[in-house]
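User: two proteins, same treatment. go.

Assistant:
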Amino acid sequence: MSEFVLHPDAITDVEEIWEYIAADNVDAADRFREEIFQTIQSLVPFPFVGYSRPDLTSRPLRFQIVHEYVIAYAPDEKPLVVIAILHARRNPRVIAAILRTRT
């Protein structure tokens, strides 16, 4: 079974999410980070389970929600490539701009 890789900026996304949650509760931050990675791992065998967002990007990306965060990934890549992990309540224009900068 193939694995996944994180875009360098997606690694930063995970770190920033962890730091934000850890400011209140380190254990919760650790659990949430693990949940993010478990969700990504669950996408590996079924990469098209996520939904598309043509309003955010013309690229063939898929999206999966984990609580208040959205994982943007390239389902056609082997290994699966996670492009971004962003708060889902961000302005869609901001999300689209972030996705355009990550190749």
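Protein 2:
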Amino acid sequence: MPRPKKVQDEIEHTDEAKLEETKRNLLPTGIDVQALVDEVKGRYGKNEKALADDLTTGDNIQLPDEDSDYVLSNTLRSWWSDLVGVRGIPFGRIVQIAGKSDSGKSTTAMAFMRAAQEAGVLVILWDAEKKFGIKRYKNYMGGDPNTLLVTRNKSILNGAKQVIQYIKVAKEQNPDVKILIVWDSVGATLNEQEDDEGDDYSKQPGVTAKQVGWAMKKFNSVIERYRNLKTGKETIACLCINQVYQLIGSVGSKEKGGEQLYYLSSVILQLSRKKDLNRVTKGNKVKFGIVTRAKVRKNHLFDGEECIAELDLVVSAGGIQLASDVKGKSDIVGWDDEED
């Protein structure tokens, strides 16, 4: 019995579409690229999905598109997604926030730490500057300092090893746990020779860069090692807080830590304070926040035609806001008119 014309047309259309797709995938040598990829993927078992997912064709490469693939916060999302092009810090990547002192770097780190905790992500804080504010993090930022894993070691090599030990033990207890590493800050951490009274000052920059590079490679290694092979999901993200210094004899600035940190960072944001925010309390002039400018120095996550290059932000004890959203004093997080 002959097929109805409509059904026959659909079959022919489907066959034509498949033929066109095969033609697109067919190299002049006669190799079907998609079939080749499928064949290689099929040689991995069910428990090796992550390895199979590494294999694809160029037109199928894309960034993760689920909230669970990112450390994110609704309060950060309003400006972070505009600047970076993604909704948060993606697991499986290294992100760097750099800037001079008092530009909002640690506040940004705290905001992501709180967001991670709210999502059940384990946070490891490498507090190399030994300045983490417990009261501020708890009372103003809304974070939970009791569930933070912290090392306050100021040595690059020892601190990195302690962070990795935290990760190993956490993964032994729960292989599926997601982790956010926060290193605050790279520039404040010491290399091995800086503890030696007989060190050669001229060698310090090179030694620091090498040891920071070693630490970053170690972090990159554990990011890959603890990728979930069954689901293909990344489970570790890394946020590095860094200082910038002026380039002597030239215009501009540069992040500390050497080339490895720069190369391994998928995103680098530079924050620079524009002005202080002050108010009069009980007859005294007090500072309650700053206006800072966030500028994109490097972005390997955005693949569109153009993106916002910089935004002005208001940084206060309670968090970060878009400066354009702050129309008056009452819009600022933490503002209390009763104290004026």
